[in-house]
Each structure stands twice: as C-alpha cells, then as structure tokens.
Amino acid sequence: MSEVHVEDHSSWIKTPQQLIVVVLLAFLIPVFGIVMIASFATGGLKVDSKNSDASAAAVAERLKPVGTVVIGEVPSPAAGAQPAGASPAVKSASGEPVKTAAAGGPGAGKKLYDTVCMACHAAGIAGAPKTGDKAAWKPRIATGKEALYNSALHGKNAMPPKGGSSAADADVKAAVDYMVSQAK
Ligand code: HEC
To answer: Is the CB of 133 inside a 6 Å radius of any atom of ligand 1?
Structure first.
C-alpha cells in the first residue's frame, strides 16, 4: 500500500487580503527605513542663523585662502597694521621714541623691500635680479645708483614703477639702497 505524500508547496499567502497586506508592507518598510536613515544622518545638522558660527562672516572667514598677497601698500604705523615683532612705539635706551619707518626714516628701505619688492626680488620672479645674488646685481650696480633709482621709480621691462606700489620716492630709493647693500 503506497501512500502518495503530497508535500504542501503552496505559500502561506492564502487569501487576497493577505496578499494585499504583504504587497503594502513590502512597499512601506523600505520607504520607512530610508526615511529613518536619512533623518538619522542629518539629525545633528541644525543650522541656526543666529548662531555666530553659521553667520556669513564666520563662514567667509573659514573659507578664506590661507594667505593673501598685498602689493603696493606699506602699512603705516598709524594704521595699526604693524608687522608682528615691530612694536608701535619703540623706545631707545634713553627713553626717546626711536624714529621707525616714517618716509625716509631709517629702516624705510628694508620695510618697503619686505612689503613690496620682496614679492619678486626674493625669488627672482619674472627675471628680477635676486636679492643677495652678487652676480646678478654686479652689472646693474655698475650702471650707477641713479640708473637703478630710475628703473625702480619708473619701471623697467617686467619691473613695475615703484614695484607697483605708491610708496614715496625716498622710500623706493631707500629700498634700492637696501637691495644694493645686500648684493655687496
Ligand atoms: C612685479 C615684480 C617686481 C616687484 C614687485 C619689484 N621688482 Fe624690481 N625688478 C623686477 C624685474 C623683473 C626686474 C628686472 C628688469 C630688467 O632688467 O629687465 C627688476 C629690476 C629691479 C632693479 C634693477 C634695475 C636696473 O636698472 O637694472 C631694481 C633697482 C629694482 N628692481 C628695485 C625694486 C624695488 C626697490 C622694488 C620695491 C619697491 C621692486 N624692485 C619691486 C620685478 C619686480
């Protein structure tokens, strides 16, 4: 007597109602999951416009380039734009204020050099004679101080007049003197 065993291969979905429920859940569960994940990922990001960190100025400050190149402006002591290390009121041992870089004052040449001329002359940009490069400066020095002053004040080829600055003539000449002194 052989009994035919018919295995039940049919699904557990027996009624149309069950089918509808399964189809709906198959659709809703992933959607619900995605919404959960999305809110989880962005939950910590609350942009508060009153928060100073989120202000336009603060953002601009964070996004600004690492360095800025300023050509043509010599920080005046009055503007408070002193480079680090230079205190606004340097006093000599006797207590008298030492004249720092007022136009034509001692150090004006180096100061102008450091703020303007160095941009090209420190590394020899655009064919500029490198500061301290004796070989590059020798033939130029041989043309005489007046010729160098003239080139520095009025420009020469890629060398812009006054290095592109609006410095006083005396300061530009002092900067030339300084560069020449570095090449001797
Ligand atoms: C934009 C770049 C640049 C800056 C900034 C610059 N120079 Fe020059 N300078 C040059 C170049 C390039 C030359 C070479 C010109 C040539 O002989 O063709 C030169 C040449 C010179 C010479 C030699 C001129 C000659 O007759 O041989 C002097 C002096 C000089 N510069 C002084 C200065 C001083 C002072 C400053 C700052 C106030 C300055 N330079 C800033 C690019 C620059």
So the answer is: no
